[in-house]
Amino acid sequence: MKLNLKIWRQKNASQKGGFQTYTVDANTHMSFLEMLDVLNESLIAKKEEPVAFEHDCREGICGACSMVIDGQPHGPWKGTTTCQLHMREFKDGDTITIEPFRARSFPVVKDLVVDRSAFDRIIQAGGYISVNTGQAPDGNSIPVVREDSSLAFEAAACIGCGACVAACPNASAMLFVSAKVSHLGLLPQGKVEQSDRVLNMVKQMDDEGFGRCSNVTACEAECPKEISVANIARLNRAYLGAALGSEKEV
Amino acid sequence: MSWFSHFLNSSIGQKLIMSLTGLFLILFLVVHLVGNLQLLADDGGESFNLYTRFMTSNPLIKTISYGLYFFILLHTIMGIMLKRNSQVSRGPVGYAVKKTRAVGTSGLLSSKMAWFGIIILVFLILHMYQFWLQMKMGATPMITYPGHEGEYKDLYSMVIEAFKDTTFVVIYVLSMIVIGLHLWHGFQSAFQTLGLNHKKYTPLIKWVGKAYSIIIPAGFAIIPILVYLSH
Questions:
Q1: CB atoms < 10 A from the CB of B61, how many?
Q2: Which residue among B11, B89, B192 sits closest to A233, beta carbon to beta carbon?
Q3: CATH number for the A116-129+144-245 domain, one of 3.30.390.50, 3.10.580.10, 1.20.272.10, 1.10.1060.10?
Q4: Do A103 and B89 count as a contact with CB atoms less than 8 A apart?
Q5: Is A212 in contact with B85 (CB distance < 8 Å)?
Q6: Contact B102 A243 (CB under 8 A)
Q7: Among all residues of chain B, which has the CA nearest to that of A108?
Q8: B203: which DSSP letter?
Q9: Residue of B28, B32, B21, B24 whose CA lies nearest to B219
Q10: Can you give the residue range of the structural domain that contains B82?
Q11: Which pLDDT tens digit goes with each residue over B109-121?
Q12: What pTM does this model have?
C-alpha cells in the first residue's frame, strides 16, 4: 500500500516547525511504528534526516510512543498505543497527518518527540510509597478488600504516556494524576501517605502548567489503558478531604 | 497566602467554586420557574403581582438575591479564568487535525461551555435591563386588588407586553435552548467535580441532569410561547 504522510518536522525546541509530506510503501501487516521505520530507512538512504519519534517496548506497556495520528493521540483504535496500531486500519492512497502531543507542559524536543519529564516530577512529588528495605513481607499479611484491589489494579494500568493531556482541550493531567493517586491510595500500604501525596502531586501538576479539568472525558476516550474518569472524581474527593480534613498545609 | 487561598487557587479549588456556584444557580432556576409559571394563571396577573411584591420586599429573599448576583458574577469570572487558563495550557501551537472523542453524551458539549456561558450572560444582561431595571427605575403602572392593601406594581402587564414581541420571544426561546445545553453538561459535571462519581448513584445523577436540562428550560420557554400565541 502507498501512503502519503504529513509529518510535523521541527529541528529542536527553539526553532519553528512545520509539516512535510512524504510517501511510503507499507503493507497491512506492519505496525504503525514499523511503517515509520521503513520511512526512516528510505530517508537515511537518501541522506536525509530521519523522523525522530519515541518508542521502546513496542508491545503497549511502556508508554514511550506518543504522537497524534489524524487528530487522535495513539491513533484511531480504542485502548491501544501507537505501537499496537496496525496499518490494516488504513487504505491504499490515504493521507495520514502525524503531529507531536501538544501542550505547554510537553514542549517539543524534536519532530514528534516531546519532553514529558513534567510527569516524572509529578511522580517525584508523591507518586510512590515509602517502604523499608529488607526481606519481602508475606504476601497475605495485610488484608486488602477485593473491590479495592481491582480498582487499584485498573488504575495501575496507567503507563504515563500523556495521551490524556494531548487529548484534553484544557491540556489537563488530571487522569494521569488521579490514576496514580488511586492505585496507591486504594491499597493499605499507600493510605498512610495519601494526604501528603494528593496535596503534593496536585501542587506539582499545577506548577507544571497543566490545565484545569472540565470533565470533557476525552482523556478516558483516548487512554490506551482506558483509565476511567471515576478516578478523577476520586482525586477530587481525596484532595477536598486532604485540604479541608487533614492537618497538612495546602 | 493562607492555606485557604492556596486551596481555592488550586486547579481543583477553582473547579470547586465553579461547581458550587453552578449548583446554586441550578436551584435558583427552579424557584424562578415556579414564580414565572404564575404568569399563566387566569386571574389577570393578581397572583404574579402579589408574588413579585413578596419577592422584592421580603428581607430574607432580598439577602439571598444579593448572594445570587454575587454567585453569577463569581461563576462568570471563574469561567473566564478557566477558559484563559486552558488556552495558556494548550500551548502556542495547536493541532492541524483534531478529533475529540468523549465518553457519554455530555463530554463534547463541555468544550463549548464558555461560549454557552457568554451567550447566557448576554441574555442575562438583556433580561435584567428589560425587566429588573424597568421595575426598579422605570415608571411601572400601579394596580390595586380588592382584599389587598395598597398599590401593586403591575409587572404582569409589563411581561405580557414584552411576550407579544416576536423578536423577543425568539431570542428568549433560543436562549433557553442554550441554557439547556449548558445544563446538559453542567449538571452532572458539578457532581463529578465534587468527587461524587460512583456506580451506585452516578446513573441517577446523569438521568436527573438530563431530565432537568430539558424540563426547566422548556418550562421557561413555554410561557412566552403560550402568551404570544394567545394574543
A1: 13
A2: B192
A3: 1.10.1060.10
A4: yes
A5: yes
A6: no
A7: B93
A8: H
A9: B32
A10: 8-89+106-230
A11: 888 899 999 999 9
A12: 0.93
For residue A62, the one-letter residue type is C
User: CB under 8 Å to A103, separation ≥6 — which residues?
Assistant: A114, A162, A165, A166, A171, A210, B89, B90, B91
B93 in A contact zone (CB under 8 Å):
yes
Please give the ipTM for the structure prediction. Answer: 0.90
Q: Tell the CATH superfamily of the A2-110 domain.
A: Beta-grasp domain (3.10.20.30)
CB contact under 8 A, B192 and A229: yes
What is the mean pLDDT of the segment spanning B198-217? Answer: 95
Tens digits of per-residue pLDDT, A54-93? 999 999 999 999 999 999 999 999 999 999 999 999 999 9
* 3-state SS assignment for residue B18: helix
Structural domain total, chain B:
1
Establish if B25 belongs to a structural domain. yes
The model's pLDDT over A185-213, given as tens digits with 9 standing for 90+, comes to 999 999 999 999 999 999 999 999 999 99
Q: Read off the CATH number of the domain in which B225 is found.
A: 1.20.1300.10
Query: Residue B107: is its pLDDT beyond 80?
Result: no
Which residues from B are below 8 Å from A167, CB to CB? 100-101
Q: What is the pLDDT of residue B147?
A: 83
Largest CA distance in chain B: 70
Residue B102 has its nearest CB partner, among A211, A216, A234, at A216
Nearest-Cα residue of chain A relative to residue B11 = A212
